Amino acid sequence: MPEPQLEMELDCLDSLPEVALPPGYRLRTYQEGDAAAWCQLMAAGIGGEHREEAFLGSVSGPRGFDPEGLFFLEKDGQTVGSACAVWREGYAEDTGYVHMVAVDPRHQGRGLGRALTVAVLYRFRELGMRRAVLQTDDFRLPAIRLYLGLGFRPRLTHEGHQVRWREVYHKLGRQEEPER
Fold it and tell me: Strand, helix or coil at 136?
């Protein structure tokens, strides 16, 4: 049985950076008809198979779909990034879940994942949430570096997480030890 994804938590949404986009990129929220572009983007940016029929289930939490919490980045009319703000059971009422952050590989390395994540964090704050969590994979080192830079910290929720986080920190060249 595979081990669960790594978890990270940002314990305060008070001091968020600006949503900064490079020239030519535009941030917007969900519009009717975005499902096909979202599915293509997820396949390219995250991997796996994403079907339009399952789109709403993928971007909704137990409280339903929040169109203002599903963000898209565009360049020249093409969808090049997306991230979603949801609430998930198992977390506190005041904790938002950063979900499905993806950037088209041809546009990575330009701060777009950061802009999307910050937009999601602002949405949580608008909704009255005080903290945020996310799950990620050990091999997503650029994403983990981004999240650490925004103030997220490892959340050790599985017996194997401490060792896995040590390895991630080593690969990132970080000297400190993941907090318990």
Answer: strand
Structure letter (DSSP) for residue 53: G
How many Cα atoms within 13 Å fall on the side-chain side of residue 61? 20
What's the CA dihedral at 62, 67, 71, 74 to 10 degrees? 150
pLDDT digits over 128-157, tens only? 999 999 999 999 999 999 999 999 999 988
The region that residue 24 occupies, defined by phi over 0 for left and psi between -120 and 50 for alpha, beta otherwise, is left
Nearest to 73 by CA among 48, 123, 38: 38
126: three-class secondary structure by DSSP: helix
Query: Cβ distance 121 to 13 under 8 Å?
Result: yes
Query: For 53-105, how does the pLDDT look when each residue is reduced to its tens digit (9 = 90+)?
Result: 778 888 887 788 899 999 999 999 999 999 999 999 999 999 999 999 999 99
Q: Residue 29 above 80 pLDDT?
A: yes
Give domain 13-133's CATH superfamily.
Answer: Gcn5-related N-acetyltransferase (GNAT) (3.40.630.30)
Six token digits for residue 35: 């499902």
Q: In the numeric block, which tokens belong to residue 58?
A: 């993928």
Cα separation of 56 and 65, whole Å? 7
Which amino acid, residue 88? R
What is the tally of helices (H) and strands (E) in the chain?
5, 7
